[in-house]
Amino acid sequence: MYWHGISRRVDRPGNALGLSCFERSYEGRGEPFATDDRASRSSVDRNQEKALNSNTAKAEIERNHRSWIASLAPYRRASPLRSTIEIAVTALPFVALWVLLALAVLNGHWWALWLTVPAAGFLVRLFVLQHDCGHGALFARRRANDWTGRVIGVFTLTPYDYWRRTHAVHHATTGNLDKRGIGDVDTLTVREYHARSSWGRLRYRLYRHPAVMFGLGPAWLFICQYRLPFGLMRAGLEPWTSTIVTTVGAAIPVALLMWLMGPVSFLMVQLPITLMAATAGVWLFYIQHQFEETHWSEGRDWDFQNAALNGSSHYDLPRPLRWITGNIGIHHVHHLAAKVPFYRLPEVLRDYPELRDTGRITLLESLRCVRFVLWDETTNRLVSFRQAHLSA
Predict the structure, then answer these.
(1) Which spans are transmembrane here (predicted)?
(2) CA-CA to 380 of 20 to 30 Å: which in 27, 40, 105, 152?
(3) CB under 8 Å to 128, separation ≥6 — which residues?
(4) Is 52 exposed, middle or buried (0-12, 13-18, 19+ CB in 10 A)?
């Protein structure tokens, strides 16, 4: 992990990243502890450096005495034009790729099936747009966000109003050991795992197996589970309306396309796109919170800002993947200020460079995260089954 001296906890008021002002004054210059050669510098250089460090430290102190949430408030302003363009450059290529795939399948051009990959990528990006609508971030007006999210939900098979409520619970409880179970990946502590029966431990191991987590699980979630408002069945009419209307809204074009193309041809186009996009979406969500040095705490110690900053990762993807995933990898900033539109998240990293290395995970490093499956309350990190067994 690339932490560069950033503490995993916010222990001092007024210091959102847990860094001393001295350490932060050198952050980004590649020399957080480079002091050995200063004695040999000229007095002029030392005075200039002292003045520079003093000004930097003052700026950092002033910034950190403000809440990060307040600091990021100016970035919450969405541009209706930019948001509309983002919808167009996502939806239109997706539809075009889908049509090309359909024509290829109907004419036996199987070589064109590679178009499934970019089509799935654009479907993931559509989900990110829907996600922003759920936070009221894509447009200034709630009605515009809600109806855009509902329409996109027909393509992503995600009932917007139902998902929005469960996702709001996720944001309000992420990293809270006392409020697990809705909108998150089920995570046991080492103690809870050892306290389970053999059957209970086997069930958890199966649930956490990559073939289930990133294979069967995503298919079940988007194709089956989202057809009923699980978890909110007694929460009023809205969750039921959301799931039923989305299912009917998706079933109508599916039935029409099956009639035009034939069921087999339609499924050869749509099913791989859906499964690939679902797996990618679950993978992204997993890496955003299931990394080794994430943050969990009991309810009495839980703090929203601390959980947002330290319990969410910065998935630093290559630029093309960053674009197709709608900057959702800048997840720690998103949890700090969920109403910041996805296209403004890079601005936050530009203006607050100290956030770049907070929870940073590269694409290669993310592959290791699959084995971190249990929260160790003694070391305050996620561990593997093997590590948990050795510590028992």
Answers:
(1) 85-105, 111-128, 206-228, 240-260, 267-286
(2) 27
(3) 325, 326, 328, 342
(4) exposed
Residues 206 and 337 in one domain: yes
Number of domains in the chain: 2
On whether residue 40 sits in a domain, the answer given is yes
Place of tokens 């809870």: 192
Query: If DSSP codes are grouped into helix, strand and coil, which group holds residue 20?
Result: coil
The answer to whether residues 337 and 306 belong to one domain is: yes
| Packed helices 237-261 and 160-173: angle between N→C axes, nearest 10 degrees | 130
Q: Tens-of-pLDDT digits for all 392 residues of the chain?
A: 333 333 333 333 333 343 333 233 333 333 333 334 443 344 444 445 444 444 453 344 334 434 777 889 899 999 999 999 999 999 999 999 999 999 999 998 888 889 999 999 999 999 999 999 999 999 999 999 999 999 999 999 999 999 999 999 999 998 899 988 777 899 999 999 999 999 999 999 999 999 999 999 999 999 998 998 887 888 888 989 999 999 999 999 999 999 999 999 999 999 999 999 999 999 999 999 999 999 998 878 888 888 888 899 999 999 999 999 999 999 999 999 999 999 999 999 999 998 998 899 999 999 999 999 999 999 999 999 999 888 76
